[in-house]
Amino acid sequence: MKIFPIHELIYTVQKFPLLQSLTACEIVQSLKFFEDVPIDCLNEVVHDLHIHQFSNNEIIARHGRYNEWFYIVLSGKVSVFMITPDYTNSELYSIEPDNFFGEDIVISNEPRESTAMACGESILLAVDAQSIKKIIASSTRTNEMLNNAFLQRKMRNNLRSIPIFTRLNEEIFNEIVDVVNVVQTKKGDVIFKQGDTGDALFMIRKGDVSVYRTMNKKDELISLLAEGNFFGEMALVLGEPRNATVIANNNCELLKIEKKDFDTIVLRHKDLYDSIHTVALERVSGHELVNAEEAIVSKKLIELNRKLNKHIDIIAQCTFETPKGSALLATLPGSRYPYVYPRDSACATRMLYRVAMSTLRSNDIAFRLLAGIARFIYSCQRSDGYWGQRYGLDATEKSIYKQEDNVAHGVTILCRYCLAAKHKGHVPIDSEDYINAVYNGAMFAIKRYYRNEIHLFYSTTSIHESAIEEGYSIWVNYAYWCMLSLIEQVAQEYNCVSRFERIIDLKEGFGRIVKNVFTIDDRLIRRLKPDGEADLRPDITLMSPFFFGTGIVPNVFTEDAIFSNTMKYVEDTLWDPDLGMLQRYLPFIEDPDTHVHAGNGPWVQYTAMLAQYNYFTGKVEKGDTIIDIINRYSVDEYLCEHLTTPERFHEFLTMEWLSGKDVNKEFASDIMVDGITYDLIVEELNHMKSSYDQIKRTIDGGTDNYLTFAMPLMWSHAEYAMALLLKVWRELLDSGVKHNLL
Ligand code: CMP
Fold this sequence. Notes:
Elements: E1 2-5, H1 6-13, H2 24-29, H3 39-45, E2 50-54, E3 59-61, E4 69-83, E5 89-95, E6 100-101, H4 104-107, E7 115-128, H5 129-138, H6 140-160, H7 163-166, H8 170-179, E8 181-185, E9 190-192, E10 200-206, E11 208-215, E12 218-226, E13 230-231, H9 233-238, E14 245-248, E15 252-258, H10 259-268, H11 270-284, H12 292-317, E16 319-322, E17 325-328, H13 342-357, H14 363-380, H15 406-424, H16 431-448, E18 450-451, E19 456-457, E20 472-473, H17 474-493, H18 501-507, H19 510-517, E21 519-520, E22 523-524, E23 527-528, E24 534-535, H20 544-549, H21 561-574, H22 604-616, H23 620-632, E25 642-644, H24 646-657, H25 661-666, H26 678-701, E26 707-709, H27 714-734
Antiparallel strand pairs: 1-2, 2-7, 3-7, 4-5, 4-6, 4-7, 8-15, 9-14, 10-13, 10-15, 11-12, 11-14, 16-17, 18-19, 20-23, 21-22, 23-24, 25-26
Helix pairs in contact: 5-6, 12-27, 13-14, 13-15, 13-27, 14-15, 15-16, 15-17, 17-18, 22-23, 22-27
Adenosine-3',5'-cyclic-monophosphate is lined by residues 198, 211, 222-223, 231-235, 242-244, 246, 283, 287-288.
């Protein structure tokens, strides 16, 4: 995006002799939007106006974020779309020159519900919040115009966010938009009573409601319904009185369709009628809460789902649809890491897989994301089965480091997808191709990285990028253990055990070997160096048995004394004394083995893993404390990758970056992929330099005692969401309630 103040435009226009006398006000006034704005108001705001220029497909305003500008389109076109509950883009409307958008900036103080993107090069007039407030205060007609547009557009957003309407074709959708009304409720409002005549259908846009039925003269809670659900359909489609009373549990936003409008629309659109009728029949034939315990579970799951959705949404924001599948970027498009990393994607699928396999309302969403990610990762695999460190949006390899754990991650992602697809009855027609890719990946790793003499996978680099991991590391070996275990499950589910015999044989005993080799005295170690010496230093990778174990099935990992000792060691040594949270290893500045990464400090995704571990092993309060600390560093609910302090950053700059030591570590020849081009190194160096320069500017202008990097990091959100999931799983387990959350 290019930004320039409006005088620059005026200056250019005035260079033409015929236009020399034109003033900024006159130019602006020629736009339809400003027709009714009094000239003195225009004079006041005109100098604050800006021109924003966007290139094709550039995101102008993203859903989930607050608007910063109100825009009038001067040239080009803007497409406004919603990411639907199944994570496809659904265009709501497009905005042509002389029309405006971004009115939410003054009318609602909520984050945007839709995303605006430039279609072709587009030039927009940008008005800041202050100026637009002055404008609407000066002109009633402009104010009305803004309000009407807001209501119309909000209605479209609202309807598309209800699953039964998400995929509805434009014609029926428009008919519904015309007849629907928004109803706001307060906590305790009775929406209707059992026995009433059914006069309308309600859809829940925000909030939740309780459904009560009078049985044996007592009101029994039979269901809790939340966002995306509808109610009041039974009386309409079955032609009976209301069979239950519905009460709002909080401030709800409901969309209401009157019976006469409903009847007219469904008469002509049988598919819509059928989908509503099916739900009504399901509700008649059971699906009722049987006791208070079930009601508590249902409520907990609604709340969990709501919280998870925020993080799944951020993951979706980092997802780019491409012809080769969904490219899950490490951060938002346009930021520091515009690549797809198989490792980060695998960690995200650890959480998405769990949600997809659960009974949570978002299981379909999670499954669709998982399917898209798997498709993209499948497209990245080299013909010999290999996956590298990272890929561009067109699935071309962009790796710098060798990172031998990535083949495990690639296979893991495909296995999770195959297992979830089977579970949900959505096995893809090309499942054979996925199974082949799993086989080729595993065979590649066994041939290239597995050392028969010690029965372990050898690596030069992996999670910490630099040479710190050369040898046999706990992270890499547990990553392969996870891969082998998932392959065994896939082989069973897809009836191809004999094809995978060799791989399954290798898995036998591998878990035990890994555990034994990495145990010294009463705790685990992070690595055996190439010469066989043990690397005893503390490292977050010591969490690997938990992390990879719970990435398979929940009961694969059980804690023993060795593991709890190890976790104590991790916490005692790696907890950041100033900022809290876990560092990934100790800050050995100027140590050639250690990559300090812009100043040492804690990392959010690893700290979230520590919270997961505490929840999983029943230390719920401690898990909560850790999550609270993470929350302290979140901004607008975004979580970063890692943090440091201005002093430590300064130390890094002077001792590591300016002296060239960091570059020597980052680009040491033995850790980089073979045949790396200098172009790629320069590209990476440019990313690093611009991000460090930016931090220097932040420090100069700021007063915070900490700095954050890569906000939001998709991976941090995935681990945080997994922690939320494990917390509720644990709480339900402890309360003795039967459930199938994992
Ligand atoms: P209706 O009979 O029109 O009014 C009461 C509504 O409560 C009913 O439609 C359904 O929408 C809802 N309802 C009734 N039974 C259930 C159930 N078992 N689960 C979920 N919702 C229900």
